[in-house]
Prior knowledge:
Low-confidence stretches: none
Largest sheet: 8 strands, mixed
Bound molecules: zinc ion
Order of helices and strands: EEEEEEEHEEEHE
Shape: elongated
Mean pLDDT: 95
Number of helices: 2
Distance between the termini: 32 Å
Amino acid sequence: MKFCSECGSAALEFRIPDGDTMARRVCTTCGAIHYQNPKVVVGCLPLWDEKVLLCKRAIEPRFGLWTLPAGFLENGETIFAAAARETLEEARARVEVGPLYTMISLPHISQVYVMFRARMLDLDFGAGPESLEVRLFAEDEIPWTEIAFRTITRTLRNFFLDRKLGAFPTRVSALERRVPREPALAGAG
Ligand SMILES: [Zn+2]
């Protein structure tokens, strides 16, 4: 941020306010403290029989790679409503949002992913404006090397493992900054 959203001043400094523990942008003109907190990405794992619905991204980042329908929670919105909305927008699919499945913290980019299991209500789906293609995949058809985000890979891997085990506990985890790979292993995306 370059200007104070309270008074328009450009006189912002980055410092720890009195009584706080972290540095914030503080306006030296009006005294406003500009807190910034993580964003919540909400989505779901839409299921039809044994198959999972994936969307091929028509937008950056990760254009052309596959993902589960997910996006930023809006102000004033519940996480259930966000999961259903993102699925309708990206996959044109209507779902009954089910139990919370994965929550994944991404501290290096200040995001939290919240993914639900969901049941598709019908087979009337298709690519929304943010998708190139939307398809149902059986486990052995999942394009593992073309998944857009590690949160989605983790959610899908957990799901297929848990399905074999016969139970779907809520799985809370974190992903840290990606460590550069050995050259021999690079290139898989
Ligand atoms: Zn100000």
